[in-house]
Write a structure and sequence with these properties.
The protein is an alpha+beta fold. It has one domain (about 20-150). It is rod-shaped. The longest helix is centred in the first third of the chain and has 52 residues, at about 15-70. It has one helix at about 15-70, and strands at about 90-95, 100-115, 115-130, 135-145.
Length: about 170
Amino acid sequence: MTSEVLEFHHPERGFSLIECLVATLVFTLSCLGVFSLYQQQIASTQALVQWHVAKEIASAKASDLQKQLTDPHSTIADINDDTGGELAAGRTTITREGRDYNLQRHWQVTTVKSAGSTLKLASINISLSTSKRTADATQHVILWQSVPPLLPRSEDFNPDNGESLP
């Protein structure tokens, strides 16, 4: 009997070069996708923070207009489009949390006549921009003065005609 030696051929173990390249390509593309989502999330968060700052500034102006009505020398007639309060209308630059913003603040006032009193609706528009994006916010506030001013204003009399304060 002849002895035959059976040789078993064992396939080599491991990955081929093509398989490694394909796996590396798939991994790289998935990392790029995750990185892109991360960048979008950062941009979205920054836009939300900027909108929140704009909303905060609009709310501060609404409070400013309401505060003016508590001044004994002020009347509701003193509040009109872009006038009234201590915070001025127009363009300015502000810094919040170490970041500079270009601020544009305007408001429009609509007078509503009702029985026995005058109401005003103020629509405060804030545009807050950086070099990359702009956030816009609008705040509405109803203004009324429940009692007339306590003290006469200097505009209410003319001393040249011999009038004096009551």
